[in-house]
Design a protein that fits this description.
- The mean pLDDT is about 85.
- The chain has helices spanning about 1-5, 15-30, 40-45, 65-70, 100-110; strands at about 10, 80-85, 85-90.
- The chain has 5 helices and 3 strands, in the order H-E-H-H-H-E-E-H.
- It is mainly α and about 110 residues long.
- A 3-stranded antiparallel beta sheet has the order 1-3-2.
- It is globular and about 35 Å long.
Length: about 110
């Protein structure tokens, strides 16, 4: 996922990642967008995760409304194309962040 977010395309993607994207799209539909796998732009922009020195929860600033608005304008699973084993992020600034769904998926696979 990190490589996909950085490069914008991932060829020969692992079946688990393809499955996770499919499940995430289903959950996005079921929740009417309350879950959105493309919120990496929001977490990076609004919470400034690029600066790893600021990850201490006491030092994280509250996200500004403008940052949230800009980040949300860069989201949407419609900008993630899956064709066979190739995944392409079709919008600059968009990134995948599976959050708790990714963790739950990993636990399910491990068990």
């Amino acid at each position: 996922v990190s490589r996909l977010n950085q490069e914008g395309v991932l060829r020969d993607s692992h079946r688990d990642l393809l499955d996770l994207i499919q499940k995430s799209r289903e959950i996005e539909r079921e929740t009417e967008g309350a879950f959105n796998m493309t919120l990496a732009a929001l977490t990076l922009r609004a919470y400034h995760f690029q600066d790893l020195n600021r990850l201490n929860s006491r030092s994280l600033p509250r996200p500004r409304s403008a940052d949230i608005r800009i980040a949300l304008g860069q989201t949407g699973s419609r900008f993630v194309r899956v064709k066979g084993a190739e995944i392409t992020i079709m919008k600059k600034g968009l990134g995948l962040d599976f959050g708790g769904i990714g963790k739950g998926y990993a636990i399910d696979k491990a068990s």
